[in-house]
């Protein structure tokens, strides 16, 4: 079965073709980062308009690149939610309409399930059951994943998401959007021990809180402004974030008795987080799995793959177009 995946929940237009026999045939991705950069964050209306502009040219590019014709596509999976309402509508309408015209099934996919399953596309995929640490711009969750669609929420952020904290701290320090990769880059030149930052909610089993961390960074930043301490602060902040995520992930492994940890979502691209998990999990005879960097942040491949898993299980949607901006998994 050949599935076209469409991702338009935020500021990336991602399309991909996944073949159940041959795997991922190809993907195209257009990032709107430049468009939103001057505003310091994503402007919803601009995002929707840009998705509309890019969907058809990107589909043509993907078909040309893979040598596939529209008629060979067997099903379409699009991101139904969570995300920005207008942005979601563009992909949902495009996917549902194209599926109707081609007389093939369409299915709306949960964006976070896409992230969670993306590591299964790697050459050494994890096997169910596993613990998943989902860390993106909108979510921070620990889940026990027992199979497709069988997810148990173990803990989550009670305020900001991990990616959001990276983005807000970056903005505060005058770094461009998106903050995560820019903080990580600047942190390479800093000393992670130079600022002692709090690790909020460490006493609370598996929930996270990152808004206090952001305030703590702001207080330090205002104190040392103009002293050229940005790299030290970025390194200390990244250290505190990674420390918190690693400790809670290990706690979730111990709590469930599982030995595999999957990290997914934009923040899972963070090099320090990966290194720390690799070494700390080895000590408890557990293993960490993640997607290749291009499949950590938003992309169409994870949606095509998650859609195929759902279609394989006999699910498909009717002709209505539904989007779900807020949608628990
Ligand atoms: O999953 P994603 O692409 O979009 C959402 O679904 O939110 O995640 C985007 C988030 C942004 O907050 C971005 O700053 C963060 O992932 N991010 C990173 C890194 N790369 C992306 N955070 C830390 N380190 C990175 N290397
Ligand atoms: Zn995402």
From TrEMBL:
GO CC annotations on file: cytoplasm
Pfam families the UniProt entry points to: TsaD
Keywords annotated in UniProt: Acyltransferase, Cytoplasm, Iron, Metal-binding, Transferase, tRNA processing
Domain Gcp-like: 24-305
Source taxon at top rank: Bacteria
Requisite cofactors: Fe(2+)
InterPro entries with a match to the protein in the record: ATPase_NBD, Gcp-like_dom, KAE1/TsaD, Peptidase_M22_CS, TsaD
Sequence positions that bind Fe cation: 111, 115, 298
Compartments reported by the entry: Cytoplasm
Primary site of residence: cytoplasm
First-level EC class: transferase
MF (Gene Ontology): iron ion binding; tRNA N(6)-L-threonylcarbamoyladenine synthase activity
Residues that coordinate or bind substrate: 134-138, 167, 180, 270
Reaction catalyzed: L-threonylcarbamoyladenylate + adenosine(37) in tRNA = N(6)-L-threonylcarbamoyladenosine(37) in tRNA + AMP + H(+)
GO biological process, one term: tRNA threonylcarbamoyladenosine modification
Function, as annotated: Required for the formation of a threonylcarbamoyl group on adenosine at position 37 (t(6)A37) in tRNAs that read codons beginning with adenine. Is involved in the transfer of the threonylcarbamoyl moiety of threonylcarbamoyl-AMP (TC-AMP) to the N6 group of A37, together with TsaE and TsaB. TsaD likely plays a direct catalytic role in this reaction.
Protein name (database record): tRNA N6-adenosine threonylcarbamoyltransferase
Organism: Alkanindiges hydrocarboniclasticus
């Amino acid at each position: 079965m050949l599935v076209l995946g469409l991702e338009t929940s935020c500021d990336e237009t991602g399309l991909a073709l996944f073949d159940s026999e041959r795997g991922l045939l190809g993907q195209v991705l257009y990032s709107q980062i430049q468009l939103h950069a001057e505003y310091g964050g994503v402007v919803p209306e601009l995002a929707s308009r840009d998705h509309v502009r890019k969907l058809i040219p990107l589909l043509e590019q993907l078909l040309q690149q893979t040598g596939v014709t529209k008629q060979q596509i067997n099903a379409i999976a699009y991101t139904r939610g969570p995300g920005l309402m207008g942005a979601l509508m563009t992909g949902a309408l495009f996917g549902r309409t194209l599926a109707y015209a081609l007389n093939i099934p369409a299915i709306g996919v949960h964006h976070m399930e896409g992230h969670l399953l993306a590591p299964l596309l790697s050459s050494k995929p994890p096997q169910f059951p596993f613990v998943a640490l989902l860390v993106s711009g909108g979510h921070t969750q620990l889940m026990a994943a027992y199979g497709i669609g069988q997810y148990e929420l173990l803990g989550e952020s009670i305020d900001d998401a991990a990616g959001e904290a990276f983005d807000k701290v970056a903005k505060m320090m005058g770094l461009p959007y998106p903050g995560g990769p820019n903080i990580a880059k600047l942190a390479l030149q800093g000393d992670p021990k130079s600022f002692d930052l709090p690790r909020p909610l460490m006493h609370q089993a598996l929930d996270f809180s990152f808004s206090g961390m952001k305030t703590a960074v702001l207080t330090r930043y205002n104190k040392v402004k103009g002293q050229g301490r940005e790299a030290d602060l970025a390194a200390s902040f990244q250290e505190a974030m990674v420390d918190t995520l690693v400790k809670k992930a290990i706690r979730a492994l111990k709590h469930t008795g599982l030995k595999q940890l999957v990290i997914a979502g934009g923040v899972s691209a963070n090099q320090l987080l990966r290194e720390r998990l690799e070494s700390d999990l080895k000590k408890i005879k557990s293993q960490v799995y993640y997607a290749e960097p291009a499949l950590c942040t938003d992309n169409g491949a994870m949606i095509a793959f998650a859609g195929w898993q759902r279609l394989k299980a006999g699910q498909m949607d009717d002709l209505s177009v539904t989007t779900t901006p807020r949608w628990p998994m």
